[in-house]
Amino acid sequence: MAGKNERSSSITNVAALANVSIATVSRVLSGKRGKNDDIARRVRAAAEQLNYSVNYAASSLRSDVTNSIGLVIPSATESFSAQLLDELEYAIDADAQQLLIGIGADRSAQTDRIESLLSRHVDGLIVVPGTETDLTETLDRHADSLPIVQIGGHQQSFKTSMVSIDESASMELIMRHLVERGSHAVAYMAGKEVSFESAELFTMFHTQVRSYRLVSHTDWNQFGERTVQRGYDCSMRLFSKDNRPDALVCADDAVAFGAMVALHTLGLRVPEDVRIVGFDDSPLAATTMPTLTSVHPPFEQIVSESLRLIASETGMPAHISLPPQLMIRESTGYAKV
Amino acid sequence: MAGKNERSSSITNVAALANVSIATVSRVLSGKRGKNDDIARRVRAAAEQLNYSVNYAASSLRSDVTNSIGLVIPSATESFSAQLLDELEYAIDADAQQLLIGIGADRSAQTDRIESLLSRHVDGLIVVPGTETDLTETLDRHADSLPIVQIGGHQQSFKTSMVSIDESASMELIMRHLVERGSHAVAYMAGKEVSFESAELFTMFHTQVRSYRLVSHTDWNQFGERTVQRGYDCSMRLFSKDNRPDALVCADDAVAFGAMVALHTLGLRVPEDVRIVGFDDSPLAATTMPTLTSVHPPFEQIVSESLRLIASETGMPAHISLPPQLMIRESTGYAKV
DNA sequence: GTGAAAGCGCTAACAA
DNA sequence: TTGTTAGCGCTTTCAC
Q: Taking every annotated instance into account, which residue ranges of this chain make up the domain HTH lacI-type (chains A, B) (predicted)?
């Protein structure tokens, strides 16, 4: 397994074969040359024939451009990060850019990965902060040496760019949908209170409840863990009372899933007796029984906006908020009206 | 966002500050120098003070070592790949190595990513082939330019290394466990017939059935999709008959999950009436109700063996088969005896 | 538009 | 053990 026997062909070989200078080869291959004349064709043919590909080490040593992007996520087993990673890798033109990945759940681990990516001189950095992780200090410190895009979380800095999901729009979508389906009494199992998104969603939930004149009680709406267990436990408590909601909004698909199991146990039907909506549209959502209506983060746009911000020449950090899509499935049933 | 204003300090600055030559700095910092005397300390202090970190582009241009390894997986939303990625990233010393990732589901996409990683001169390549994807030709072609480790799949080549899960051991574990719990009649929902692992597991299942003198019928044991739907449909058919198994082995947690929903619908209890075992120990398994007993791939060992093979100096490709662990949870109940 | 040549930061060969 | 120096492959002046 030692290897690297035959050195792969370099720009010099191509130049020799095409009978031009290495400078010309460089210009043709990097597109910094207008014409597509005989010389250009000869160079390309020679490169093809020798199976040439640039040595990125040499290229970036000289030009300070590494053709690589760093991505830092809390974990690949978390559905949001995993879907984002898939989408990002897909969107990147693999011939021209390479994705370097760093995984870390807490501040210290994430900071390590960021520093390490930075020392590799990535051209841009995309960061999904872990829950309750504030990376502002680290990111700000490097904000003027490369473009940084933060995905979600609470933006505390105007030195880095940010792409996030419009949480208010999410809640509007959900509540309008539930009302259209005929729901009157809605409960909300929110995420952790400390999270910025949770707070925003919670506020918007109440705004919507008032605006549609829905029924909701203080003890129906609580912050908590984003786990199956929490959904189950809270639902067992919530739905065994007489005075119970006919719709449930969950801050996470896992919570919704736990709720569905609890409802099944209690003999309540989804969606006939209770409609359920989840968040993040994990792969789970499409496979539960009944399938789960869930808020689908706009991964494609998140990725394209992030890449655009990284490629952008203007040094201006931008804050972009993207509307999600509601994936309507069986758990909110079909129209009642 | 333009940036790269101040050029970061180079080895020359460190050398000047420590009052030694750049060669000495290089040697000290790369550990190619035994002593930890005054000079070494001075160099390290200077590097620290200047917040120096090596320029990997320059380093690898000169030495052909990029301190990076490539990982190619079918998708980050698939539980096996996601867990492997998390584990691998964790195992890598982020200061010294960087993980480059390529994602592609089919042969053409995976080959693209492999070629692209190769053109970046990664020091080693770890590949998880997509289902039914044979990468032998591509991998063999590059086998002598760098160490390549294939994870799982059917090894057709002896030019590259391979780390896989001992499927026979998996099935042995499962069957022994089920017998110990008091099961007599076992059904098996296998994966796709074309997959090498499926075939091996299917054979071993029958061997174990015979060896423990268990009851099983031909129409209980079928190949099929690894989906919730398949688990549900097959179980509805299988368990509505009088003559039904008291244990079910599923080639995938999703299948097991579908089966559990079906059993619930049919009024059969897990584990009292039917014991269920899944495969791959997805995050799902620990959260179903009841929680699902599942075969846990030995991620930690897979990663450490893979890294060892990549680092190994011997050019010998090795084939390693690692025993998995059975995560015993509620779906197979507690001892009966 | 093209070629010659400098030099990015580092490591390794060689010299002391 | 240390320092001096060549040169990895490329991009980018600079001169033509």
A: 9-63
Please report the DSSP string for B220-282 in residue order. G-B---SSHHHHHHHHHHHHTSSS--SEEEESSHHHHHHHHHHHHHHT--TTTT-EEEEES--
Q: Is residue A59 in a domain? A: no
CATH for B173? 3.40.50.2300
* Same domain membership, residue A290 and residue A173: yes
For strand C, is any atom closer than 7 Å to the CB of A12? no
Asked whether the beta carbons of residue B86 and residue A98 sit closer than 8 angstroms, the reply is no
- Asked whether residue A4 is domain-assigned, the answer is no
DSSP designation for A257:
H
Using one digit for the tens of pLDDT, what is the confidence trace for B155-199? 667 889 999 999 999 999 999 999 999 999 999 999 987 777 888
**Per-residue b/e over A275-312, b at no fewer than 16 CB within 10 Å?**
bbbbbbbbbbbebbbebbbbbbbbbebbbbbbbebbeb
Instruction: For residues A201 and A259, state if they share a domain.
Output: yes
Does the distance separating the beta carbons of A257 and B310 come in below 8 Å? no
Nucleotide showing the shortest C1' distance to residue B27 CA = C11
Q: Are residues A82 and A42 in the same domain?
A: no
The values of phi and psi at residue B12, to 5°, are -65, -45
| Same domain membership, residue A308 and residue A292 | no
Q: Which domain holds residue B127?
A: 68-166+298-323
Mean pLDDT of A226-234: 91
For residue A2, pLDDT over 50 is answered with no
B193 with B283, same domain: the answer is yes
Report the alpha-carbon distance of residue A157 to residue A150 in Å, rounded. Answer: 10
Residue A90 phi, psi dihedral angles, 5° rounding: -70, -40
Q: Which of residues 149-188 of B touch A (CB under 8 A)?
A: 161
Nucleotides of D under 7 A from a protein CB: 1-5, 7-13
Structure tokens at A51: 């199976």
- Asked if B181 and B225 sit in the same domain, the reply is yes
pLDDT at A158: 83
Q: Does A255 touch chain B (CB under 8 A)?
A: no
**Helix (H), strand (E) at residue B169:** helix B167-180
Distance separating alpha carbons of residues B19 and B32, to the nearest angstrom: 19
pTM of the model: 0.92
Same domain, residue pair A251 and A190: yes
Q: What is the pLDDT of residues B21-73, one digit of tens each?
A: 999 999 999 888 877 888 999 999 999 999 999 999 999 999 989 999 999 99
| % helix, strand, coil for chain A, step of 5 | 45, 15, 40
Locate the chain A residue with the closest alpha carbon to B114: A94
Cβ contacts (< 8 Å) between A317 and chain B: which residues? 1
CA B28/CA B34 separation, integer angstroms = 8
Residues 34-73 of A, Cβ under 7 A from nucleic strand D = 52, 54-55, 58-59, 61-63
The total of structural domains in chain B comes to 3
Residues lower than pLDDT 50 in chain B: 1-5, 335-337
B205 CA, D9 C1': separation in Å?
56
**A222 and A247 inside one domain:** yes
Q: Which of A57, A77, A310 sits opposite B57 (nearest CB)?
A: A57
Residue A158 lies in a domain: yes
Residue B325: phi and psi, rounded to 5, are: -125, 140
- Cβ neighbours of residue A285 under 8 Å, at least 6 residues apart? A253, A256, A278, A291, A292, A293, A294, A327, A329
Whether residue A162 is contained in a domain is answered as yes
Whole-number Cα distances in Å, B247 to B18, B74, B214, B236, B324: 70, 32, 11, 14, 20
Query: Hey, which residues 41-60 in chain A have their CB within 8 Å of chain B?
Result: 53-58, 60
